Amino acid sequence: MLVDTDAKVVSLKRYKVLKGQSSVSGLSSGAFMTVQLHLAHSSSFVGAGVIAGGPFRCAESFRAASALAEDAYVQNALYICMNPLIPQTGPDARHLAKVAKACAEAGEIDPVQHLKDQRIYIFTGKTDEVVYSDVVKRTKQFYQALDVPLSNIRYHDHVEAGHSIITDNPEDSPLPTNQPPYINNGGFMQSHDILDHIYEGLKPASDKLSGRLIRFDQTPFFDGDKRASMSSFGYAYIPAAVEAGAPARVHIALHGCKQGYNYVNYVNGRPDTQNSVPYGNRYFTTTGYNHKADSNNIIVLYPQAQGTDDGETQNPDGCWDWWGYTSANPNQPDYYSKQAIQIRAIHGMLSALGG
């Protein structure tokens, strides 16, 4: 039975998680973070799902975009990694693959050789007006440049979808929509397709959930550091069979901007708490991950980012960091590495579960 998410806060406990069999997926900023986390800890994973996200270190494609590093990365994020004017101004996948190899040689991320047998799902909607399809296509090229076989990559660019994760829920937004909550009805559960591609031979999704959705304290994983721009709580779905001791795998599902459980809109640097959005729990309750995980003994971990807009951290939309806003030194960003505060926190959660 699915427990009310207002239930007490618990600690993550260790389960019989199969080592090196975890996976990760995400939408938008969660997709960019998916690629970063996947590269940083590729030895922990067997695959990844990228919905509307670009390649590794995309925001550093053109350092000369501005005199100040921080401004350059933001401009890269907007005009190269999201909305390039023409395809030719999009990210250079082969160059960024070389950057990834250099990071691995420097010990900043795991060796890229771990990627060669992994399974990658990549999706871009034909009507996505937030992250253009030309950029997402470069993510496919990026993984190919790192020797992931084309047969292991499932690339979708034919669905008339806006910027969203897709469900078969009639109450979700129309398929071409490009606005919050970025969950659109397209007649299929995209989360099921992602898990089916990463883990071959899965059982059909459960009609009724057997397990529980837990709320846990995230703050120990980032030491309560405000720079992390992460929420106080995270969520995880634990199937009943896993609670009873069955071997399990972990899938990390990363929401996009404006999708965290405590997202509020910032107006002139101040949170508009009087007009809070009502959909902050939908990514971890209605996107279908839990039902597919329930029948296949998969724990689904839902880390949560939150909005911050002050002199220290500028992340008003509650996005995961893929352009360097969490980096202590803007001239030497570490947001993509094992030492990045968000990556360290999420991987710490995975380790706490036993993965």
* Beta strand count: 16
The Cα radius of gyration reads: 19 Å
| Count of all domains | 1
Strand content: 15-25%
Sheet with most strands: strand arrangement: 1-9-10-14-11-2-3-4-5
Helicity range of the residues?
A: 10-25%
User: How far apart lie the N and C ends?
Assistant: 24 Å
The average pLDDT is 93
* Element order: H for helix, E for strand: EEHEHHEHEEEEHEEHEEEHEEEH
* Contiguous helical run count: 8
Q: Segments where pLDDT lies below 50 for 5+ residues?
A: 1-6
Largest sheet: 9 strands, mixed
Question: Shape, please?
Answer: globular
Summing up helix and strand content along with how strands pair, one would put the structural category as alpha/beta
What is the strand and helix layout of this fold?
Layout: E1 9-10, E2 22-27, H1 29-40, E3 45-51, H2 69-79, H3 93-105, E4 119-123, H4 133-145, E5 153-156, E6 165-167, E7 173-174, E8 183-185, H5 190-198, E9 212-217, E10 233-238, H6 240-243, E11 249-254, E12 266-267, E13 270-271, H7 289-294, E14 298-302, E15 308-309, E16 314-315, H8 341-353
Parallel strand pairs: 1-9, 2-3, 2-11, 3-4, 4-5, 6-8, 7-8, 11-14
Antiparallel strand pairs: 9-10, 10-14, 12-13, 15-16
Helix pairs in contact: 3-4
Task: Put the structure in a nutshell.
With 355 residues, the chain is an alpha/beta fold. The protein has helices at residues 29-40, 69-79, 93-105, 133-145, 190-198, 240-243, 289-294, 341-353, and strands spanning 9-10, 22-27, 45-51, 119-123, 153-156, 165-167, 173-174, 183-185, 212-217, 233-238, 249-254, 266-267, 270-271, 298-302, 308-309, 314-315. Helix 3 (93-105) packs across helix 4 (133-145).
